[in-house]
Amino acid sequence: MAKCDICGKSVQFGNNVSHSNRKTNRIWKPNIKRVKCKVNGAPRRLHVCTNCLKSGKVERA
């Protein structure tokens, strides 16, 4: 599973809780895109979450 190369966001684990309060496992996956970014002036492909893209932490190539 990919994780954000900028902020380190990756999958999180928890429980589905039904109306009768039964618990089953579930996963929250972050919205991660593979984009071309400038790193030290050179373009590279990075895994970046959409929060980092939206906030401007990454300069697109």
Automatic annotation (TrEMBL):
Organism superkingdom: Bacteria
GO biological process assignments: translation
Pfam families: Ribosomal_L28
One GO term describing the cellular component: ribosome
Gene Ontology MF, one: structural constituent of ribosome
Keyword hit for Transmembrane: no
Keywords of the record: Ribonucleoprotein, Ribosomal protein
Record has Ribonucleoprotein as a keyword: yes
Family: Belongs to the bacterial ribosomal protein bL28 family.
Identification of the protein by name: Large ribosomal subunit protein bL28
Gene from which this protein is expressed: rpmB
